[in-house]
Amino acid sequence: MVMKKDQCIMQCTFPVLLLFLLLQLVSCLPGNISLHRESPSPVEQLPEEQLNVYDRILLGARAEVKKGVRYDASYQVIDYPGGDIDPGRGACTDVVIRALRHAGFDLQELIHKDMCANFQLYPQLWELEEPDPNIDHRRTQNQMVFFERFGETLTLEVSAETLSEWRHGDLVYWLFPDGQQHTGVISDRTNGDGIPLVIHNASIAREEDCLRRWKIIGHYRFPPSAGSD
Q1: What residue spans define the domains of the chain?
Q2: Cα–Cα distance measured from residue 165 to residue 121, given in angstroms and rounded to the nearest whole number
Q3: Cβ neighbours of 99 (radius 10 Å)
Q4: How far apart are CA 187 and CA 57, in angstroms?
């Protein structure tokens, strides 16, 4: 069969046009944030010598996104201190752990030492008789207790009046509808309303507009900023 010229053009062009339209649609979906942006964020534009501890926490979290870390919350035996699972894998809590290590704080060691001295203050949910440095710091419940004890506890509200209290490098904890807890690191990038994006890992590490997506149950700054209790 001889194909007319116009038919050939339409058949060759249609798949390309369809792909273009699909890409445009995906790019407009709420909360869709590219894993790799072309322009650097405000913190990424700062010289190394001007970075503060919260800048470094943010950059440590963003490194998880750039590496495309896949979700893995499985129990693993790791070194202590400074232990970590495969750097290409991790849970939401590993984003926080690695972000803090980038700023010089080993949450594994900090939580383990506090649990050894104050085991009864931490949730007794796993039928443990003593602290376990392989997993304790990777649990959201333990992280929240630690930050309530040694960090700065901040607002849970996200509104025009409270936006100034949400700063990059802060740590947010959510409660999923199924009762599971989740955590992430506040970004220096914002959406059109000025609400900060969040770096987190629920399937793959990503930076997106999700701060108000789930119920917020914790908001901390560690180390505490100057002037806090």
Answers
A1: 43-221
A2: 28
A3: 25
A4: 10
- Evaluate whether 142 touches 203 at the Cβ level (below 8 Å): no
What whole-number distance in Å separates Cα of residue 16 and Cα of residue 21?
9
What superfamily in CATH does domain 43-221 come from? endopeptidase domain like (from Nostoc punctiforme) (3.90.1720.10)
- Residue 92 CB-density burial (10 A; 0-12 exposed, 13-18 middle, 19+ buried): buried
Per-residue pLDDT at 157 exceeds 90: yes
Q: Containing H/E element for 56?
A: helix 53-67
Q: Does 21 have pLDDT greater than 80?
A: no
CB atoms within 10 A of CB 28: 8
pLDDT digits over 175-225, tens only?
A: 999 999 999 999 999 999 999 999 999 999 999 999 999 999 999 999 999
Query: Residue 123's closest CA among 144, 104, 103, 105?
Result: 144
Element (H, E) at 49: none
Would you say residue 15 has pLDDT above 60? Answer: no
